[in-house]
Design brief:
Mean pLDDT: 86
Number of strands: 21
Distance between the termini: 72 Å
């Protein structure tokens, strides 16, 4: 027995020593990777270069703070993803960079919302004022990428490529059938005829009210889409509608025939044209710089010396993702994090004005109200302007409505002023499917309110309905006060109805159409400052902080995405359903996917 314990002790000690050694080896490896990733030097741009832009990833509001991009780590693709902020800044810089002769828009999927695409498109239009060229090429033109590429001086497609031009469609996934099979009833308490966020849980198809609003806002977006292309390509908007509606664009030759592209070319022919435009010899390599490298370049810029030396600040606070209580992360809006950022800029005398950049479908109504309060307090001290991204709806609109002014893109999704709550009744699942029953005692009639093992009683449902009604009253009152309207009017355009930015302008939910640059200029003008620096909040967490707080979740998400592919959005939808259970929500539960 004594010998046995010796062996056990030796094994335990061996495991401990091995673990310590492995930990230090991992730490050394991690440190080396961080040093390697952080040692990126400014990239020098050769004379007569082409800025190569290829957008094949979801575009976030800000470039992620990830030192392992381009390196790959733990099996994760190391592709560098550039945020909208750096994409716009790079195009602006290239406009006056003497080393950049033009932009090459290469095959891109535009995995972003339409307002994000609109921002980049407008930046390219501004870039063309420099008289530098923009060339677009792709083997496959999605409608999103073609909308972006249509502003180019020349639009080319591979002779055997695919050109999508069929009109818009939107699809909602309904879960009621699956819930019925599982024996789960979604008990819905809501306010708003158009608050269709809960429909996937209780219906098998769109309600008439929801079909009406989707037709309305999607028609508005499609009209703007066709108008933009028509203007860029000098083609009548009605003709474009007929091309799509009759299915005339089936082959690349059709796109050329109807003047949607300028030529059918292979990649080598495109490279030859780019060499000619930049003055390079055919036998030499094309001088080019990728967008991810150009972001780090030390190329010439036209930053105003006054701005460099100015002590004035315009703060941009990025509020992107679903709204929830607590700290949040890069992909969600934590009420505590955004509140801290608003308090910080409010108390900073150097910050003269604030831009709140909202890109959110909403979320917790309580967390939305917490942020709304901070916006109200900030407004009393200094100007605060809202810039809306792809979506600023429901809770996303709640946190925006108190600002001095709201600026949206024409194709921003906004509105959805409404409140709902979902409480699952899983009695059939437990009793009939699993054979599980429950019993217990309680000290009060409503002590077990919210118990998922049974349905709500009429009294309990009335209590929850009263709570939701109260939340809707607060929401419409906040909007009415912020927008200078009556609560009755806000109720008439509320009811959960979704609007585009163009529609929202007409009904008074936004003040003007424009982008984040317009919002910054508006904030500076209201603060009566001409020279200023732009600072961004909340501060992005370092990789080490993320590593300590839950890198495993990001790794898990990466592999789930890789496994499910396009079906990942259904996984996200189911996750979204679980998040919205039990607490009142001011949100759009399903993603609006326009194809």
């Amino acid at each position: 027995m004594k010998q046995f314990f010796k062996f056990v002790l030796a094994s335990v000690v061996g495991v401990i020593i091995s673990s310590i050694i492995l930990f230090f080896l991992f730490f050394i490896l991690l440190s080396g990777l961080i040093v390697a990733a952080g040692s990126d030097k400014a990239v020098d741009v050769d004379a007569n270069s082409v800025l190569h832009i290829k957008l094949t990833y979801p575009i976030a509001e800000r470039t992620p703070n990830n030192p392992f991009a381009n390196l790959g780590f733990l099996g994760i693709d190391g592709e560098k993803t550039i945020g909208l902020n750096d994409i716009l800044a790079s195009i602006k810089k290239a406009k006056t960079d003497s080393n950049i002769k033009g932009i090459f828009l290469d095959e891109s999927y535009m995995m972003s919302g339409q307002a994000t695409t609109e921002e980049i498109r407008n930046a390219l239009i501004d870039f063309k004022k420099s008289k530098k060229f923009v060339i677009a090429y792709s083997e496959i033109y999605t409608q999103g990428f073609y909308y972006l590429a249509s502003v180019a001086d020349k639009v080319y497609i591979n002779p055997k490529g695919i050109f999508e031009f069929r009109g818009f469609s939107s699809e909602i996934t309904f879960l009621k059938g699956a819930l019925d099979k599982l024996g789960i009833e979604a008990q819905i308490i809501k306010v708003g005829t158009f608050k269709s966020a809960v429909e996937p849980l209780v219906l098998t198809k769109m309600s008439d009210a929801n079909r009406l609003q989707v037709n309305s806002y999607m028609g508005s977006m499609y009209d703007y889409f066709l108008t933009g292309i028509g203007k860029s390509r000098n083609v009548n908007k009605d003709s474009l509608f007929n091309y799509a509606n009759s299915g005339r664009i089936q082959q690349p030759e059709d796109a050329l025939k109807y003047k949607l592209v300028d030529g059918l070319k292979y990649k080598d022919e495109i490279l030859s044209e780019l060499k000619q435009r930049t003055g390079a010899k055919e036998k030499n390599d094309l001088a080019s710089v990728d967008l991810s490298d150009y972001v780090k370049s030390g190329s010439k810029t036209t930053t105003d010396p006054k701005e460099v030396s100015s002590t004035n600040r315009v703060a941009i606070i990025y509020a992107s993702g679903e709204i929830a209580g607590g700290d949040g992360d890069d992909n969600s809006i934590g009420s505590e994090t955004i509140s801290k950022a608003l308090r910080k800029v409010r108390m900073d005398d150097k910050v003269k004005a604030v831009v709140l950049r909202v890109n959110s479908p909403g979320g917790s109504s309580l967390a939305s109200d917490v942020i709304w309060r901070e916006v109200m307090l900030t407004k009393k001290v200094k100007p605060i302007i809202v810039s809306m991204g792809d979506v600023a709806a429901s809770g996303g609109y709640y946190i925006a409505c108190a600002a001095d002014s709201i600026i949206a893109e024409p194709n921003t999704i906004t509105g959805s002023i409404g409140i709902f709550a979902v409480l699952p009744n899983m009695q059939k699942l437990f009793n009939d499917k699993l054979g599980i029953t429950f019993d217990g005692v309680k000290t009060g009639k409503f002590a077990d309110l919210g118990d998922v093992s049974r349905p709500l009683s009429p009294e309990e449902r009335a209590m929850l309905q009263n709570s939701v009604n109260h939340g809707y009253d607060d929401f419409t009152k906040a909007v009415a006060n912020g927008r200078g309207k009556t609560q009755e009017y806000i109720n008439s355009i509320g009811q959960g109805r979704v609007w585009t930015g163009s529609q929202a302008l007409k009904i008074g939910l936004v003040d003007r159409l424009g982008n984040i640059k317009d919002a910054v200029q508006s904030a500076a003008k209201k603060a009566n400052i001409k020279d200023y620096k732009i600072v961004s909040y909340p501060e992005q967490k370092s990789f080490l902080n993320k590593f300590g707080e839950g890198l495993s979740a990001e790794v898990k998400a990466h592999f789930v995405k890789a496994e499910l592919g396009e079906n990942y959005r259904y996984y996200q939808q189911i996750q979204g359903v679980t998040k919205m259970m039990r607490t009142p929500q001011a949100r759009m539960t399903y993603d609006i996917v326009i194809k």
